Fold this sequence. Notes:
The chain has helices at 49-56, 79-85, 100-105, 113-122, 148-162, 178-191, and strands at residues 9-16, 26-33, 38-42, 64-69, 72-73, 86-89, 166-170, 196-200, 212-215.
Amino acid sequence: xxxxxxxxxxxxxxxxxxxxxxxxILSHFSLTINSGQHVGLIGKTGCGKSTLLNLVTRTWEAxxxxxxxxxxxxxxxxxxxxxxxxxxxxxxITIFSDTLKQNLLIGNRQASDQQLSDVLHQxxxxxxxxxxxxxxLPLGQGGRALSGGEIRxxxxxxxxxxxxxxxxxxxxxxxxxxQTEQQIIELIKQICKNKTLLMVTHRLTDxxxxxxxxxx
Length: 216
Ligand code: ATP
Ligand code: MG
């Protein structure tokens, strides 16, 4: 079995092309991210950064090569283990027309109300709890409108509820103003202290977050 308190992530000679596409998106890509390391992934638009993250979560399967977590190929991990090991903050975060609570439970259906308020506090969204409705505050269409920064914080809160040793983030500061961006970077720094982080970014301002930046 796999130790879920740490996560080493390895790409070993990965090649990938989308079905029925003649050209390879990734060709012989290798990278090792040790447990607790924070790596930034940069590269031109369309070069395959999001695709690479989707290979880790097995949304797609590599044509050749291996992706390993703690030396175990991801295709040998069952769905439940994979989900416990990896949390994802996607490039586009969807807010559903439902309560704050339901919007957070997408991260972890088992989370208690206490855990939900704790995580809201952690991502500095406690102010959403300030109404009489508390966790039942409606979000999305017809509900409380959220700013770009608040939406990112919801995405990060969902990932935190996962409580996994590995976090994959896809452009979590994209299209935020400078001040909000700095706040989100600070938040990511705090929450990833004991986690392995692979984060797609195009901003050099994210640099202080990383032990290493890799160009795809
Ligand atoms: P960006 O910085 O704009 O987010 P990216 O590096 O994340 O770009 P990807 O989304 O990984 O790029 O896409 C890589 C390439 O694969 C692009 O040319 C894209 O058009 C193509 N692509 C993405 N998804 C699919 C798909 N489902 N089927 C076919 N081609 C796809
Ligand atoms: Mg992308």
